[in-house]
Amino acid sequence: MKLKLSLILPLLALVLIAASFLGRADSKMNNSKTGGKTEFATLAGGCFWCTESDLEKLPGVIDVVSGYSGGTLENPQYKQVASGKTQHIEVIQVTFDPEQVSYEQVLDQFFRHIDPTDDQGSFVDRGPQYRPAIFYHSDQQQEIAQNFMQEIDALGVFKKPLKTELRPFKEFWIAEDYHQDYYKRNSVRYKYYRYSSGRDAYLDEIFGEQRNTNPVTLRQMIDESKGVTQSRSYSKPSDAEIRDRLTELQYYVTQEDGTERAFNNEYWDNKAEGIYVDIVSGEPLFSSTDKYRSGTGWPSFTKPINDAFIVTQTDYKLLYPRTEVRSRFADSHLGHVFKDGPKPTGLRYCMNSAAMRFIAKEDLKKEGYEEYLALFN
C-alpha cells in the first residue's frame, strides 16, 4: 500500500529532527575528536554559562555541555530547574582527554572560577539550583576530589570553609540549545551578566587581578605551602616519549600498574646513600635515610621525601582495598603503602625499583638535586 506524499513529508521531517538532536547529543556526550579514551567530569558552580566558558579554556578539555543533574524529574526544562523545586542543579558535563589533562587539573580549573564556599547559591544567582557540587563518576574521582578539597581547605585561600557537595553521578540532562555556548552566541549579554554577577570581582579578590594573564594553580599554591622546591619543573612526557625512554618492565610497572618480582629487582638491597626519583619525571620520592630492610624483597621506606610529591588512592585490584602510591606530576604507579612499618611512622612504603632511579649522594649536585644534600648532614 502506497503512502500519500502528505503523510511521508511530516514523517521525514520528524526523522531528520530526531537524527539532528541525537547527532548533537552523541557529538556532545561521546566526542571522539582525539580518537582515544575520554573521561567525564560533572560540575556545578553556579550559572552554567560561566562555568562552561571557563572550563573550555583548559587544554585537554574536548567539550563542555550545559545541563542539569541531581534531581529526579526526567528531562527537566530551564524554567522548572530555575524554580528551585526540581532538586536539580545547573551543571556542566566536561569531556576531557586524560592523556592531556588529569581529573585533578579539571577540578583545579573549576575551583579557581567559582565560589566553593557558598551553599545557598552562586553570586547574584540565589537558590539551591545554583549551589556548588561535584558529581563523581567513579570511586577514583570521589577520592581525588575528597583529597583535593581537604588540601584546598587546609590552604585557606578562600578564607571560608568549602561547602561544595560531593555526590555520586546518576543522570545528566542536556539544557536547551540556546544555553549551549551562550558566551559565544550572545557575547555582549554574557559579558554584561558576568560583570554584574560579581563573579570576577570575587575571583580577583581571591586570586589577584593577574589570575587570567599569569594564572597560578591551586596545586602550585598547595605544593608551595608544603615546601616543594620550584627549582625544577616536573611533568609527564607523551606516551611515545615514555615508551622510547623506559624499558619494557619500567613501562609495565609505571604505566600499566604492574609489579616487579620480589628479590629480583635493582634496589631492594641497595644500601648506598642517596635519593630515589621518579623514572619518568625525575621528581624526588624517597631517601636512603628512610629506607629499611623489610624482608619483602622490594625497596621499603618509612616515609617519602615530601608528601607533596606523591598521591595515594584506594586500589581494589586484588579484590580487597590497598592504598596505592603514585607520583604527583608523572602519575606513575610506584607501589603501595601499608601500616606495618617501623617507628617513627609505622608505615611501609613498598615500592617498585622499576619505577625509580637512584641518585647517589655524591651525584646530587651534578644532577640538580643539591638541596637534598641536607638530608645527609
From TrEMBL:
SUPFAM superfamilies the record matches: Mss4-like, Peptide methionine sulfoxide reductase
Which InterPro entries does the record associate with it?
Met_Sox_Rdtase_MsrA_dom (IPR002569), Met_Sox_Rdtase_MsrA_sf (IPR036509), Met_Sox_Rdtase_MsrB_dom (IPR002579), Mss4-like_sf (IPR011057)
Domain named MsrB: which ranges? Answer: 239-361
The source's superkingdom equals Bacteria
Q: What is its EC number?
A: 1.8.4.11
Q: Which reaction does it catalyse?
A: L-methionyl-[protein] + [thioredoxin]-disulfide + H2O = L-methionyl-(R)-S-oxide-[protein] + [thioredoxin]-dithiol; L-methionyl-[protein] + [thioredoxin]-disulfide + H2O = L-methionyl-(S)-S-oxide-[protein] + [thioredoxin]-dithiol; [thioredoxin]-disulfide + L-methionine + H2O = L-methionine (S)-S-oxide + [thioredoxin]-dithiol
EC category name: oxidoreductase
Q: Where is the active site?
A: 47
Which Gene3D superfamilies does UniProt cross-reference here? Answer: Peptide methionine sulfoxide reductase, Peptide methionine sulphoxide reductase MsrA
Family annotation (Pfam families)? PMSR, SelR
Instruction: Give the matching HAMAP family.
Output: MsrA (MF_01401)
The family annotation for this protein states: Belongs to the MsrA Met sulfoxide reductase family.
Q: What NCBIfam families does this protein map onto?
A: msrA, peptide-methionine (R)-S-oxide reductase MsrB
- Its job: Has an important function as a repair enzyme for proteins that have been inactivated by oxidation. Catalyzes the reversible oxidation-reduction of methionine sulfoxide in proteins to methionine.
Name assigned to this protein: Peptide methionine sulfoxide reductase MsrA
Q: Which gene encodes it?
A: msrA
